[in-house]
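Subject: Sanity check before I submit

Could someone independently write out the structure tokens for this chain? I want to compare against mine line by line before I put it in a report. The sequence has 294 residues.
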Amino acid sequence: MKKFDFTMIEELKESVLDIPKEGLSKQIWENNKLVLEVKNFILHTLATWKKLQKIDFHINSIYLIGSMASEQYAEDSDIDITVKISNIMEEQLKMLTKVLPNGNTVPGTSHPLNFYLILDENKFNTNITNADNVYDVVKDGWIKKSKLKKQTIPFSYIMTISRVFLSSIDLAIEEYKTDKLELDYYKDLVKTIKDSGKKEVEKRISMKKEEILADLDSLELLHHLIKAFRQEAFDHKYNVKFSINIESTSPNYSVNNAMYKMIEKMGYLAELEKYSTLREKIQEEIKGDKNAKI
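---
Independent answer below. Compare away.
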């Protein structure tokens, strides 16, 4: 994660809200079709992963969406693959999502795969409707393809709005790290105390554990708010009139999504995912053992 710094604005102009190219990436497209080796790698990766799962489910559709389905991509952009599945429960979907084969770079390209599973039919249809460009990987053809949009993005403005979240994330992470150091100190200290002072240290350990859980909950809340703010643009529920507006009818070019992309490219979303996983692990340990280690 890159700590927030206004000097990053120039760097982000070339990466977060990428300047549109003159055409699709030649690494993965040829004559407006997926390069055969790329298509086969996507399907093989997904099929191999599916065979390794103990959960039986059906794959209905495999669509390529996002920046790599458009002219607005970076040299290391993910290839986003939305996979519609069925015949499983919601809890099973969560389990599968945690072990997706994401991050594998397609041979001959600089682009890693990013699979996204969807179980709910309405959610899937909404995602496809909101996407500007959708390519059916199995049928090897476009579901929809929009014309090249050349948007003027107010980068410094988006960066300033994003700072509301970036600063809060930085603060919450620092709080967690400080509380964790203090907890480790008290744990070491309690081992050396044998008199009545031991109860006081144990009390501090208990309080510090609660503070750490609160720190992780704060990060989870921020994660939720960032995603919800972006989703509101796609649900057409956010009616705030910003001082500067990005003129576009597509939610992909909204202030909401521009801010989300800014935060994502700076590494904050990946950091929040890491702490979200840590939070889930600690919660599971607490369920099984009241004296669980934190």
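---
OP: Matches mine. For the report I'm noting this point. The chain is about 50% helix and 10% strand.
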